[in-house]
Structure formats: C-alpha cells, structure tokens
Amino acid sequence: QVQLVESGGGLVQPGGSLRLSCAASLSIVSIYAMGWYRQAPGKQRELVAAITSGGYANYADSVKGRFTISRDNAKNTVYLQMNSLKPEDTAVYYCNADFGIFSSWGQGTQVTVSS
C-alpha cells in the first residue's frame, strides 16, 4: 500500500495561487490514476482533478481553466496548480491513488481562500 503526503496548503487571498504537492512512497508510474479531492465543512468529498498513468486529465467543472494537475513520475509526485482561487475553493484537499481495485488516501492539507 502506498503512503501519500500532501503539502503546499495555506491561507491565500482571493485571486491568488497555490501549488499542492503529493509525494508517494513508491513509484506512481503504474498507478491507474492519481487524483485530488476536496472536502469543505458540511459537504461531501468531491473530485477536483485526476490524471491517469497515460497522462489523461479530467477536472471538476468548477475548477476548469483555473487548476492544473500534473505528475512527475521520476519524483513520484503529483501536483495541483491552483490559480484564480475563490473563497468557495476553501476546503481540505486530499491526494488519492487509484489502483483500480482499491485506493489510498493522504491525510489532507488545508486550503483557505480569504481576504
């Protein structure tokens, strides 16, 4: 089972940017998909973005054009570049590794967008 460690969260003003990182404890080359999810207080966890082992990426409609997911297989790391942040992006962001038959989660990193 893989261990995932997120970093890069914090407090940012509306319109600002953050880059989240997710470091995996093993090679991510053959992992079916790596993704970022988020959960705001009182809401269900939702998919933000995911990228397959082949490099195909998909995004939630609410973040299209603002967020970009990428992966560095050499560093076993997945990134989420978040631009033009809005208060409604405030949430705990979780990294996910989807092996197809099971998945692993990181502990999460808090992102707060506020003036």
Explained architecture:
By secondary structure, this protein is mainly β. The protein is built from no helices and 11 strands. It has strands at 4-7, 10-12, 18-24, 33-39, 46-52, 57-59, 67-72, 77-82, 91-98, 103-105, 109-113. Strands 2, 4, 5, 6, 9, 10 and 11 form a 7-stranded mixed beta sheet that branches. Strands 1-3-8-7 form a 4-stranded antiparallel beta sheet, with no helix packed on it. It is globular. It starts with a strand and ends with a strand.
Question: Key features?
Answer:
115 residues, mainly beta, single chain, globular, 11 strands, 7-stranded mixed beta sheet, 4-stranded antiparallel beta sheet
Task: Report the principal-axis shape.
Answer: globular
What number is the mean pLDDT? 96
Q: Rg from C-alpha positions?
A: 13 Å
Oligomer: single chain
- Major sheet: 7 strands, mixed
For the termini, the CA-CA separation is: 39 Å
Find the structural class using helix and strand composition.
Answer: mainly beta
Percent range for helical residues?
A: under 10%
Query: What is the H/E string?
Result: EEEEEEEEEEE
Strand content: over 45%
What are the segments in which pLDDT stays under 50 over at least 5 consecutive residues?
none
